[in-house]
Amino acid sequence: MRFLSIFLLSQLLLNASDQILLKTQANINQIVDNTQVSKIEYLSKTIYLLHLVDNQNITEVIDSLQQNPQVIYAHPNIENKTNPR
Amino acid sequence: MRLYYTLLIMILAGCGSDKSSDSFDPATNPYYSKAWHLHNTKDANVDSKAHVNISKAWQKSRGKGVRVAVLDDYFNPSHPDIKDRVVLTYNASDNSSNINTLAGKVAHGQRVAGVLAASTNSIGSTGVAPEIELILIGSAYEDDASQIRAFEYAKEHGAQVVNCSWGSYAVSQAVVDTIKDLYDANITIVFASGNGGFNLDQTSYNDESELEWVIGVSSSSEFNTRTTDADYGSNIDILAPGGEKLGIVTTDNTNYTTNFRGTSAATPIVSGAVAIMLSLDPNLTPEQIRERIINNADKIGNIEYIDGFNLKYAYGKINISKSVLE
């Protein structure tokens, strides 16, 4: 399974009602292409995890998301990187 | 009548305390005799001042009621020295409550939890803050998403302190944003610096422990010097005992170990101190807590501190009683 995490435009989050609105699936659907994304997981008030459908080019999806003015950045969900100390 | 007044005075005296039990005696726990990080054990291999000076702080509080989240790998929440402290468990990898996936593995998380909060119950070891409420959050933290889920769970379930005895040397922006979000919510986050002996100021490192919104912890030894393989840098705040050759006594999967060492062991000592401080003053902000800890640190090592700071020794070793009683 491949994931992307996206970070939404911060100005929209300054208003509490917008925060609630942005948690809705419908609002996220305005940003993402649902032919590319099989599931949208809410992680925090500004971060969402996108589960890509099979055979999607992750670079193309990132480029597409970054064209949207509501997205500050999009990047792959980095794997296997922390260690106990 | 005299008896009546005596009882009244005893009741009124109790109302002004933090309700910590007067019968508290860590020495009833058999492994306390090996807890060189907590008191002078008079062990010939340990400097008499290697401990964190906690006894006077314990007379005021043992962290009662403060909710601390431990983000780590595996736990056994049924361990007799942990079970009375645990209020919630969460697996950030699969969204379940099962954090006991220990088969064949070393329970790093269980060891961290024991240093922090092992109960004072006449068995085993004693934690730094043995009366706190624990949220145990397990995961391999194999990706950004599991880390963010863990931090969010801690925040949403009332954690006032978050202990992270792990790190990546390459924290992502999404995780940084989440840590900042918890800091803004008045949650104190404590991170281990690592055990590679690295100078984290080098540009190749971008570690969680260096972030301005966390307390970064390096390690001191049983000789009351810095641990030679502990990571250091200009953004690390404080040292706490993690041991050089001699480790910290704590809970293990089902039993105990006397050799849990490194910055992973040092970090829950600081988190426990934070919990004690918050139990006495819940309004302290993360920055106020950090300042009290670094301003009251012991300047160990017979080395020069410039403006209170040394690159390898940070602001010195934590002195818990001085930090708590300031």
| Strands side by side in the biggest sheet of chain A | 2-3-1-4
Number of domains of chain A: 1
> What sequence of helices (H) and strands (E) makes up the elements of chain A?
EHHEEHEE
Question: What structural class do the secondary elements of chain B suggest?
Answer: alpha/beta
Structure description:
The complex is a heterodimer of chains A (85) and B (326). Chain A has 85 residues and is an alpha+beta fold. In chain A, 25% of the residues lie in helices and 31% in strands. Chain A contains three helices and five strands, in the order βααββαββ. Chain A has helices at residues 16-22, 25-29, 58-66; strands spanning 3-8, 37-42, 47-52, 71-76, 83-84. A four-stranded antiparallel sheet of chain A has the order 2-3-1-4, covered by helices on one side. Chain B is α/β, with parallel strands linked by helices and 326 residues long. Chain B has one domain (47-325): Peptidase S8/S53 domain (Rossmann fold), CATH 3.40.50. In chain B, strands 2-3-1-4-6-7-8 form a seven-stranded parallel sheet, with helices on both faces. A two-stranded antiparallel ribbon of chain B has the order 9-10. In chain B, β9 (248-251) and β10 (256-260) form a beta hairpin. In chain B, α3 (108-117) runs parallel beside α6 (263-280) and α4 (144-156) runs parallel beside α5 (173-184). Chain B starts with a helix and ends with a helix. The model of chain B is unreliable at 5-19 (pLDDT under 50).
